[in-house]
Amino acid sequence: MSETTVTVVGNVATTPVYRELPKGPVARFRLAATARRFDRVRNEWVDGHTNFFTVWAWGALGTNVQGSLSIGEPVLVQGRLRVRDEERGGQHWTSADIQASAVGHDLSRGTTAFRRARQGRPGGQPDGDEPSFEIDAQADGEPKEQGEQSERREPAAVG
């Protein structure tokens, strides 16, 4: 049986819920994807139908989702689609779940700042031992350490 892999562009519809389970960490959130089209008669963009997906992110991806996403943010989700039919309380329900393999902000609609997650540090939170990348160039072109005073040097005579 082959699995259906999808990439969905939409907005985070619910706050990610994070849980530590015996199988590992998992984050779950709802994704809203609305089709838009240009109506030439009205000369404007109009919204079409909105599809909702439940996104499941396991392991490190789930930890990073929990620390990175908020309601309303535009995202891209790639993963395996699973459509479920079930009976609940005498009613028939159909749900579309995505087991995510990748989740990221949609950079066509804004900017984001990436922080590499460190092992054991959820959400890429720095642990205070981060090196400073703020360096000034000395006159000879060599970087100086933060806090080091640069001395002014005269250019060597060419002769």
From TrEMBL:
Organism of provenance: Streptomyces sp. NBC_00119
Domain of life: Bacteria
Subunit structure: Homotetramer.
SUPFAM superfamilies per UniProt: Nucleic acid-binding proteins
Location of the region described as Disordered in the Swiss-Prot/TrEMBL record: 87-159
Annotated GO biological process: DNA replication
Protein name listed in UniProt: Single-stranded DNA-binding protein
Compositional bias annotation for Basic and acidic residues: 141-159
Keywords: DNA-binding
Residue ranges, compositional bias (Acidic residues): 127-139
GO MF annotation: an example: single-stranded DNA binding
